[in-house]
Amino acid sequence: IYGPVQDVRIPYQQKRMFGFVTFVYPETVKIILAKGNPHYVCDARVLVKPYKEKGKIAEKYRTTLL
């Protein structure tokens, strides 16, 4: 409905259910995020957030205590 999908990953965790969808075109993500939440997949409510790599976020906000 939004654009071609490159990859889908759904890691298994007992307490949290989430997945990652990689679209072929980055513009697709901008369109989806602009629509806000919630979205529905097979009548199930899902919240959409951009993916942020932990290592890159940690690098950006690294603090040293002296």
UniProtKB/TrEMBL annotation:
**Coiled-coil regions listed in the entry:** none
Q: Which GO terms describe its molecular function?
A: DNA binding; RNA binding; zinc ion binding
Look up the domain of life of the source. Answer: Eukaryota
The cross-references to InterPro entries, in alphabetical order and at most eight, read:
Nucleotide-bd_a/b_plait_sf, RBD_domain_sf
Keyword Zinc in the entry? The reply is yes
Segments spanning the bilayer are none
Keyword Ribosomal protein on this protein?
no
The record's keywords, sorted A to Z, are: DNA-binding, Metal-binding, RNA-binding, Zinc, Zinc-finger
Q: What is this protein called?
A: RRM domain-containing protein
Q: What organism, scientifically named, is this protein from?
A: Nymphaea colorata
